[in-house]
């Protein structure tokens, strides 16, 4: 996997992925940023949420759960000192569907956290405490 980062100006950068996609990142106004895109640390948090959500959806579909939507809401705390690394991250999953089994959602989250999500594994190995919970929203048939 490869990517490249190109400096635009001030503290704005364009990241280009190997798969041909790009995103603009920008620093905060305190460092000269102009809010052109997410902060780099926000992208790490987004990546964790995307990785875990991918796992949850694929695991639930394999378990034949009738999922119609999955939302992952993340809250993170960072160290007060530099480097301001993440210290705690909480993922809250909102799983919507028809007759979704609570046990299946709990198992999907456990498998993602402990086995499949590379981003989660990398962060927890680095000392970040990651917690999870979920709610299920039932939709009519």
UniProtKB/TrEMBL annotation:
> Which NCBIfam families does its entry note?
PRK10738.1
Pfam families xrefs? OsmC (PF02566)
Q: Which domain of life is it from?
A: Bacteria
Please report the name of this protein according to its UniProt entry: Uncharacterized protein
User: Species name for this entry?
Assistant: Acinetobacter baylyi (strain ATCC 33305 / BD413 / ADP1)
């Amino acid at each position: 996997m490869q990517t490249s980062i190109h400096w635009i100006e001030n503290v704005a950068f364009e990241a280009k992925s190997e798969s041909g996609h790009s995103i603009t990142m920008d620093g905060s106004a305190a460092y000269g940023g102009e809010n052109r895109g997410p902060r780099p640390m926000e992208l790490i948090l987004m990546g964790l949420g995307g990785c875990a959500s991918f796992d949850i959806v694929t695991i639930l579909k394999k378990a034949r759960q009738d999922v119609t939507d999955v939302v992952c809401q993340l809250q993170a705390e960072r160290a007060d000192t530099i480097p301001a690394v993440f210290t705690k991250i909480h993922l809250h999953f909102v799983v919507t569907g028809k007759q979704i089994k609570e046990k299946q959602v709990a198992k999907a989250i456990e498998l993602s956290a402990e086995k499949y999500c590379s981003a989660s594994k990398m962060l927890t190995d680095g000392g970040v405490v990651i917690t999870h919970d979920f709610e299920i929203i039932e939709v009519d048939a």
